[in-house]
Design a protein that fits this description.
Layout lengths: L16 E8 L5 H11 L3 E2 L11 E4 L2 E4 L10 E6 L3 H11 L9 E5 L2 E5 L5 E5 L11 E10 L3 H12 L3 E6 L2 E8 L3 E8 L10 E6 L3 H9 L3 E6 L2 E8 L6 E11 L38
Parallel strand pairs: 1-4, 5-8, 9-12, 13-16
Antiparallel strand pairs: 1-13, 2-3, 3-4, 5-9, 6-7, 7-8, 10-11, 11-12, 14-15, 15-16
Length: about 300
């Protein structure tokens, strides 16, 4: 028998936060959102839920954008997306430019990614599938928040102590950054900046966790639970230093249990290459994960 191989088993530790499911921002115009998210980015409106004209859920792999109608909200940072075929993405974005004239829509091709801005100023960074993002072929590998100077270390400790999430203090573009691992291939990033930050306007993110009661108890002990939504969900707003209680950053977390009825719901992701004039039977959807041999 050959000598047993040695593996670093810690590489497979994912912690308690297992999935970043959606980012929620209010938007004032569902038509412009359709042009940007579906026609431009090539994502897919969820065909089953929120199908009226006052909200839309936009599928990106196994994650979503939730876009209720209201006064525009601005995420303080950027959302990272993986979308294959940069050349085709740029063509789609160019195609919607005339109809988005007069808004804050913009896009710029950079080395290794495309930066784009939605009609109301939210920033997205689009990457092609890459080893940095594991097996994601289409999806939301991270949300990166801009946070005040001197807070990244405390934010990292907050997620470790309160949520039992693998989190570490690192650097991003030369600035201190809290890197919080979510599931297998996702992250929450909190990058320090000296620039002034706009006031928090109520946007939120949603995560699923396995130990549902432990973080709730620790949040409750600190007076941080802001909403007891239902049996499977609660919310909190403030990230604090776990030792001193000092508020470090505000971003509402919609926290759902692993047993939530929506956990693991299959999301439809269309193939934007398909058109009525160039249609191939059996290629209507696109995969959201790379095959094992490609990861």
């Amino acid at each position: 028998m050959s000598e047993a191989a040695t593996f670093d088993r810690s590489q497979e530790d994912v912690g308690n936060i297992i999935h970043l499911e959606h980012v929620n921002v209010l938007i004032p115009d569902q038509r412009l959102a359709t042009l940007f998210y579906m026609t431009g980015l090539g994502l897919t409106r969820d065909p089953y839920l929120m199908t009226s004209v006052d909200n839309m859920w936009v599928n990106a792999g196994t994650s979503q954008f939730h876009l209720p109608t209201g006064k525009a909200q601005l995420l303080r940072g950027r959302v990272g997306l993986v979308i294959p075929d940069r050349a085709f993405l740029l063509k789609r974005l160019e195609r919607v430019r005339p109809e988005l004239a007069g808004t804050r829509f913009a896009f710029t091709e950079k080395s290794g990614y495309v930066d784009t801005v939605c009609p109301w100023g939210n920033r997205l960074r689009i990457h092609e599938p890459d080893a940095r993002f594991g097996r994601i072929a289409l999806g939301m590998p991270y949300v990166a928040f801009d946070v005040p100077a001197g807070t990244a270390d405390g934010i990292s400790r907050f997620y470790r102590d309160v949520f039992s999430a693998p989190a570490r203090l690192t650097e991003d573009e030369g600035a201190p950054c809290a890197d919080v691992r979510v599931g297998r291939d996702q992250r929450l990033l909190f990058r320090e900046t000296d620039a002034p930050l706009p006031d928090y306007d109520g946007h939120h993110i949603q995560v699923y966790i396995t130990d549902f009661s432990g973080p709730h108890r620790r949040l409750q002990e600190r007076g941080l639970v802001s909403q007891e939504s239902n049996q499977w969900q609660y919310r909190f707003l403030d990230i604090v230093d776990p030792a001193s209680g000092r508020k470090l950053f505000t971003i509402e977390h919609e926290v759902r249990s692993f047993t939530h009825p929506l956990y693991g719901r299959p999301l439809v992701n269309r193939n934007p290459y398909q058109t009525n004039n160039a249609f191939a039977v059996g290629y209507e959807t696109r995969p959201w994960t790379l095959p094992a041999s490609a990861s």
